[in-house]
Amino acid sequence: MTSKKTSVTAPNAQRPAGLAYLVGRLDHVLNQRLREGLAPYGLTVPQYTALSVFRAHGSLSNAQLAMRTMISPQSANEMVKQMEAKGWIERRPDPAHGRIIQISLTAAGEAILGKCDAIVIDIEQMMFPEIGEEARAQLHGSLRAAVKALSVQGI
User: Is pLDDT of 1 > 60?
Assistant: First the structure.
């Protein structure tokens, strides 16, 4: 009786990294670069994200902010307190729902965001230095579609 061996790839065989692995690596290095670039302005990556979300969507509740920035409502609440203390955002009662507090960007928040946008754009250029505007728009669309496909609430 002869045993039949099945073909197994050698442990050291070169196989291209999967997309999930590469996206995870990109997330890690991108976060590191963003932290380094934003730190001199006293901003964290989640704070920059939150300020950007306010600019894009206007006033939001804490729960909406947490969902849009992918952090817990408790973490969002702490972040809101810090950003309010720096004058970057303001909280006001929602006129339609007395118990809901709406959070919005202030002029100071808009100013710090403007300064930091240039840093983020530079980092994005470092990621894809040779990509043209058309390919960049296509990549942007593909990434948004991937987030939407894997997300319950989309973006």
Answer: no
